[in-house]
């Protein structure tokens, strides 16, 4: 049974999911290539996954059969236990909690394509719409405090398989993640000081300085962050204040699909198809102050190693100025 | 010129050190093997490093010549500017600071040995004594707020060269690292609640439960942490309350050398010579409440990839229970 444990000093939760365990000496050494013959995510192979919980389907097609655009299934290797009750307990000074929560995979396309940038704009738009809908559905579960959407591309980014079929994870958690809590806390302090959203102020300054902006369309802007942890780390913000991703109007999603595909394409052009992680940071389910959080997407290329200095300090060393990174990416957009 | 930039939301500092920059497509792809012929850290090659700032030398030997046990030199690829003044400035909502600080390398042995576990106990004891002395000397610099000691072993742990000559980094920072600040904050809250050191309580519970203890000698204990982020992550604590590593009595260092070498040896046995990071977390230079911080060493094997879930949430997924990890390591000690 998976279990959450809380670090009594830093209050960080760790999920112990021993069913995923490999033999000690095998860690991180497997990198399997999956072709379309054996790919459980390809159209026609629906029986290789658990039954779907949601799909955008052609009229007349059957559940768990072919004829879909986007398909959502429970993760076979889920880190969380969907059916369990949330049990919290103490053991001396330690805190533990049952690893209750939801873990779904969104299969972004019926075709065996490994990278998001091979998808058409309208396909990405559809997949973003599905993610929006799934988050809204999950929010009805009384245990879920936060819904995190992540994508791992390439083995350095933690993807299990090489050249895999493009998919994302939706994880519903019974607690608000530490990183999101930090952002909310920082935004709250800023709001109390200035009575403005810190994200809105960042966007305004980025647009006015125009040194780190990569793409600026009607509703969204992508920038290399001023204090990026990683070389070429990029963020996408809605230009209008909006706390929850899942409340984004559908008519904005075409713009979002364009900026997402074009930003990642530029990244892949500059860095030669790097591994990367994508994270959607939306507001917690029970928003107390929607005025202070502002949803955004973080794109983190995994091209340099994180060393002892970073693990020990929580600070990062970045060898590339975001101004230079933005310039390289803009040049790549034009070429 | 290196520069610190502060994330305006999470308040994390990032050091931009562009002099270390490689071409975008070369990131993380170089892994050079250095043999003793070309190793700048070997005895007899003292002219290949910047002039030493400290060395434990045989009587009659010359500065920057052979005849030393442990040698300390400035890092040629320093991330920090030793001579600069500390300049802080704002730019709109962003904060920046000159990357002032100290960055030294401690060469742990004159012999070309890549791993700490190839050193004799008395050699490790000597090298720990030198680190203690260097921290105490650095504390006199009025700019330095924190001295971090880290060791990277193996390329997955961020080491630049494969099979390199065993060495550590001492980094003097003008700010307290985020991770240490979090520990202090957590320890402070605990102290206010219970009027006891949280680390002392952890040690007491670990010794009494004896489920995660690997080695327990007169002055130190090594344990697989209850909420370890990484498989086989291990911590070493002095059993007596002591806030600063650099105040450890010299007569304790033999015990520390033994527990450090034996713990890492067990780790290397179980995991087949893994990459790892070692961090010494000591109290900040200007200790306000020595009663609440408790120095410790963190040993983090780098055997699994950090994926989008971890980067996006700040939570970790660990496939190995620390109780199992401790058991494997103890079995390896005996064999």
UniProtKB/TrEMBL annotation, chains A, B:
It is an enzyme of class 2 (transferase). One of its GO terms (biological process) is galactose metabolic process. Keywords: Nucleotidyltransferase, Transferase. Residues 198-309 form the HIT domain. It holds the Pfam family DUF4921. The active site is at 167 (tele-ump-histidine intermediate). InterPro entries: ADP-glucose_phosphorylase, DUF4921, GalP_UDPtransf1, HIT-like, HIT-like_sf. Its EC number is 2.7.7.12. Coiled coil: none annotated. One of its GO terms (molecular function) is zinc ion binding. PROSITE patterns: HIT_2. This is Galactose-1-phosphate uridylyltransferase. It comes from Muiribacterium halophilum.
């Amino acid at each position: 049974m998976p279990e959450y444990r809380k670090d009594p000093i830093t209050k960080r939760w760790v999920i112990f999911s021993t069913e995923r365990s490999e033999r000690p000496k095998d860690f991180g050494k497997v990198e399997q290539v999956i072709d379309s013959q054996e790919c459980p995510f390809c159209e026609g192979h629906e029986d290789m996954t658990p039954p779907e919980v949601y799909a955008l389907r052609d009229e007349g097609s059957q559940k768990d059969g072919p004829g879909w655009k986007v398909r959502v299934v429970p993760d076979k290797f889920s880190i969380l236990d969907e059916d369990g009750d949330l049990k919290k307990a103490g053991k001396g000074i330690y805190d533990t909690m049952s690893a209750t929560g939801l873990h779904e995979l969104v299969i972004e396309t019926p075709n065996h394509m490994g990278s998001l940038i091979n998808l058409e704009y309208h396909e990405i738009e559809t997949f973003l719409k599905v993610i929006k809908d799934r988050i809204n559905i999950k929010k009805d579960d009384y245990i879920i405090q936060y819904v995190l959407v992540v994508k791992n591309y390439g083995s350095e980014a933690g993807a299990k398989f090489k050249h895999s079929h493009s998919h994302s994870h939706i994880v519903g958690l019974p607690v608000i993640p530490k990183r999101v809590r930090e952002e909310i806390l920082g935004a709250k302090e800023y709001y109390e000081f200035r009575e403005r959203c810190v994200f809105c102020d960042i966007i305004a300054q980025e647009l006015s300085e125009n040194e780190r902006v990569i793409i600026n369309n009607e509703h969204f802007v992508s920038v290399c962050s001023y204090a990026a942890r990683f070389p070429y780390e990029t963020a996408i913000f809605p230009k209008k204040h909006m706390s929850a991703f899942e409340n984004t109007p559908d008519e904005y999603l075409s713009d979002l699909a364009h900026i997402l595909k074009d930003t990642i394409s530029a990244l892949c052009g500059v860095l030669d198809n790097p591994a990367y992680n994508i994270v959607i940071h939306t507001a917690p389910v029970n928003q107390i102050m929607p005025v202070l959080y502002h949803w955004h997407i973080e794109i983190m290329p995994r091209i340099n190693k994180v060393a002892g200095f970073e693990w020990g300090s929580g600070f990062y060393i970045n060898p590339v100025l975001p101004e230079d990174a933005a310039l390289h990416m803009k040049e790549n957009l034009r070429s």
